């Protein structure tokens, strides 16, 4: 047990000892423990421009002494600068935008403001907090899919502060902007909350949507200031500027107080008694481990949140903890519950307040509790699996910690390469700056529909194209004109038909056609999935989760765009297997390093789902079911490296060591590819499901051994680009993840992939390390540094021709 300088075990250390009590030493799961110190608050005076009424209202809502970052951000916004406030969880970002907006309202009774959040629930929370302040003349109102028709006219005509989301702005507000003329004329501020969530394809859509919004506001003579709120991220200024398409200043110096926290990294033990794919060992699942930890912490009386990746996982983890408690402390079983999206707002409120006042002690939740919900000051947080980004990791762990008392955060690694890497590289988790979100507003697949929408909203003028990407926009417009969707006139580009293009754009999708998921018995539409990923997610036999309910797919009718499902809750989950082929269409950048090249470019990925695995929650694989589905072609961006045969097989004296025997090359490349896909999310803020890969010993287009990692969305989302630019640290981390795993020949924690089309065959773990050594040595040597320099953030310039 670790003690404080005064000789006393901290509360957090006691909790950790409790969670590990009785675990045999050779199975001790904790790989690292770190203590993060408490932080004292720093206060600033209310600026002179804040009217007394507003100051009093904000003080009454709990912020009687503002923190310096709140005043810094608010003052910038007040002075007319776009600002992004990127500070920690519960650091009072709301006040940073409430202050300028409410102050402006108090001095200009025609002023209006728009608040946008990625979710309806968060917008509702923020609306409630502004309404509760009860400041005269603010007239705040929600305008989203739930707003009754009867109220919409009132909101358009009278509301001054409208709380909405990107989807509604796109479909409901911009297309009928003339009915919103009053609102746009007065538009002084646009608040973009939780903006770090706008990444990948969704981020690219929102970036273009914000450009459309600014254009329409200018049409009415307004020029709103944007105030963005973000979790802490690297380069918030650059990201926000890219998202807005306009200059934006960052405020990052967090002056809010925070309690001390103990962070424990935890790797569940290998279970030798269970067999996974190809008989690889599996680890105890992170969810099952989280349930045990949750139960132990509840017994200690610690108010605990366990974050789990899926809704079903949240239910299972809560259930698991309840079962354990039912045996050892039955009176505590009812103090545990699950929380996830899909519950009614009242149910959610009730769960939140029960957790805050101690009626509940343990709650297992999805990331529904991550965004915005004002729950903090808990005794402990358990994260079952890396949530995908460091921003989310800190957001979730930030729910723990009260001033004056320390709190425990336990990160439980799942059975995959990224989690394994993090469990063994605490610095990568605890000391790295949070990654910047990636988005690509120049993606023609995203740009085209937004230019069509913009033209339909108001004819596009040549002078307006710069904000939409200049030449990229001109090329896309030419295509839209050729397709007769737009007409070019001397005064600009015009939308040609009476139908609006807006309904065909799905901001959260890939731009591909949507497949409707329909319950066959009732004809109820459950949801939609991207056409591009439908074969992988709603193939016959797939288990499909909707709002926590489980369905099984009976039929996928691609021609009519419908997947028919029935309600069923089998104990297994399914994961599709596909075979993939890749063709290089254009190499955009190429760097060569004596036998190794690193490339970025456009590719065509042809894939076919050929079957699926059925897997038990324990990780055990039940069977593989074959499927017969058509091929799909995806045009996207990829990063790839090639290694020449001489170097790869050790015939040329390369710097990377002995080389790989020819027979082992396919397995070595394949394993290196899987691990690299697993680690890219560390650098590119994507999910491993957003990217794919192909490896081959001799690729038709490159003529050499090649490993590709490609974006999973049409046109790309910026992930491959990020991989290209962070090539050395990315492959260095990949190598370390593989070598850190103690399994003998490859398992899900290192080189097996949950979605491999070839059933994870062939895979050569040692060969993968050799390939990565050869590549990193060649690149490192050409650049004059060793590959152990993981800090080198960029591929060095081409030096070897
Ligand atoms: N200056 C202040 N002094 C004391 N309490 C404050 C201050 N500013 C804000 N708070 C309180 O801190 C809590 C968190 O504020 P808020 O929800 O704005 O944080 P946030 O940074 O937006 O959180 P999240 O990370 O969840 O988005 C609220 O209960 C709020 O009333």
Automatic annotation (TrEMBL):
Sorted UniProt keywords: ATP-binding, Helicase, Hydrolase, Nucleotide-binding
Domain called Helicase C-terminal: residue spans: 292-445
Domain Helicase ATP-binding: residue ranges: 74-251
SMART domains membership: DEXDc (SM00487), HELICc (SM00490)
Single biological process term from Gene Ontology: interstrand cross-link repair
NCBIfam families: DECH_helic (TIGR03817)
Official protein name in the record: DEAD/DEAH box helicase
Species, as recorded: Saccharomonospora piscinae
């Amino acid at each position: 047990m670790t003690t404080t300088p005064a000789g006393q075990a901290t509360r957090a250390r006691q909790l950790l000892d409790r969670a590990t009590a009785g675990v045999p030493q050779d199975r001790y799961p904790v790989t690292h423990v770190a203590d993060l110190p408490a932080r004292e608050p720093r206060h600033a005076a209310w600026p002179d421009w804040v009217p007394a009424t507003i100051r009093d209202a904000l003080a009454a809502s709990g912020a009687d002494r503002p923190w310096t970052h709140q005043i810094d951000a608010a003052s910038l916004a007040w002075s007319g600068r776009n600002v992004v406030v990127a500070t920690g969880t519960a650091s009072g970002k709301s006040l940073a935008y409430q202050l300028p907006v409410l102050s402006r309202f108090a001095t200009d009774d025609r002023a209006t403001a728009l608040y946008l959040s990625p979710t309806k629930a968060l917008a509702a929370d923020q609306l409630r907090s502004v309404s509760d302040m009860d400041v005269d003349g603010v007239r705040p109102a929600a305008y989203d899919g739930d707003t009754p028709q009867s109220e919409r006219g009132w909101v358009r005509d009278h509301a001054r502060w409208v709380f909405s989301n990107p989807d509604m702005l796109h479909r409901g507000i911009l297309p009928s902007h003339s009915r919103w003329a009053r609102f746009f004329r007065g538009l002084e501020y646009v608040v973009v909350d939780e903006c770090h969530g706008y990444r990948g394809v969704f981020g690219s859509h929102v970036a273009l949507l914000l450009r459309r919004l600014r254009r329409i506001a200018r049409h009415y003579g307004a020029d709103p200031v944007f105030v963005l709120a973000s979790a802490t991220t690297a380069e918030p200024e650059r990201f926000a500027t890219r998202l807005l398409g306009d200059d934006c200043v960052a405020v990052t110096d967090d002056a809010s107080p925070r309690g001390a926290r103990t962070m424990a990294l935890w790797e569940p033990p290998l279970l030798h008694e269970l067999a996974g794919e190809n008989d690889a060992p599996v680890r105890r699942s992170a969810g099952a481990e989280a349930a045990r930890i949750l139960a132990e912490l509840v017994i200690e009386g610690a108010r605990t949140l366990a974050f789990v990746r899926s809704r079903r996982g949240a239910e299972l983890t809560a259930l698991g903890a309840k079962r354990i408690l039912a045996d050892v402390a039955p009176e505590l079983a009812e103090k545990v519950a699950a929380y996830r999206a899909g519950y009614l707002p009242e149910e959610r409120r009730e769960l939140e307040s029960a957790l805050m006042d101690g009626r509940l002690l343990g709650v297992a939740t999805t990331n529904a509790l991550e965004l915005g919900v004002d729950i903090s000051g808990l005794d402990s947080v358990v994260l079952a699996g890396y949530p995908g980004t460091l921003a989310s990791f800190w957001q979730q762990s930030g729910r723990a910690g009260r001033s004056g008392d320390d709190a425990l955060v336990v990160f439980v690694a799942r059975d995959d390469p990224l989690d394994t890497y993090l469990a063994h590289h605490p610095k990568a988790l605890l000391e790295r700056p949070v990654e910047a979100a990636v988005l690509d507003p120049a993606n023609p697949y995203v740009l085209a529909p937004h230019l069509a929408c913009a033209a339909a909203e108001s004819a596009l003028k040549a002078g307006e194209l710069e904000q939409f990407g200049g030449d990229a926009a001109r090329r896309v417009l030419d295509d839209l004109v050729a397709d007769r969707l737009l007409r070019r006139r001397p005064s600009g580009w015009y939308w040609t038909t009476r139908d609006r293009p807006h309904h065909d754009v799905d901001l959260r999708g890939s731009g591909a056609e949507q497949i409707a998921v329909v319950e066959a018995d009732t004809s109820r539409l459950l949801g939609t999935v991207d056409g591009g990923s439908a074969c992988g997610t709603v193939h016959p036999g797939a288990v499909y989760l909707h709002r926590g309910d489980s369905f099984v797919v009976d039929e996928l009718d691609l021609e009519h765009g419908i997947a028919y499902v029935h309600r069923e809750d089998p104990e297994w989950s399914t994961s599709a297997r596909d075979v993939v082929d890749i063709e290089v269409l254009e190499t955009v950048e190429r760097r060569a390093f004596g036998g190794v090249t690193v490339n970025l470019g456009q590719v065509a990925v042809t894939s076919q789902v050929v079957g699926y695995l059925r897997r038990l929650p324990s990780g055990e694989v039940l069977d593989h079911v074959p499927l017969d589905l058509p091929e799909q072609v995806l045009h996207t961006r990829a990063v790839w490296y090639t290694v020449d045969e001489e170097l790869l097989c050790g015939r040329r004296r390369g710097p990377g060591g002995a080389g790989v025997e020819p027979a082992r090359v396919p397995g070595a490349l394949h394993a290196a590819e899987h691990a690299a896909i697993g680690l890219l999310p560390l650098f590119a803020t994507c999910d491993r499901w957003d990217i794919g890969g192909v490896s081959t010993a001799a690729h038709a287009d490159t003529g050499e051994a090649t490993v590709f990692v490609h974006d999973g969305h049409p046109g790309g989302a910026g992930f491959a680009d990020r991989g290209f630019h962070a090539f050395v640290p990315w492959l260095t981390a990949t190598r370390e993840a593989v070598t850190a795993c103690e399994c003998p020949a490859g398992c899900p924690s290192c080189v097996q992939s949950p979605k491999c089309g070839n059933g994870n065959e062939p895979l050569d773990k040692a060969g993968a390390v050799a390939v990565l050594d050869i590549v990193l040595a060649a690149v490192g040597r050409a650049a004059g540094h060793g590959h152990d320099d993981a800090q080198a953030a960029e591929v060095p310039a081409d030096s070897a021709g």
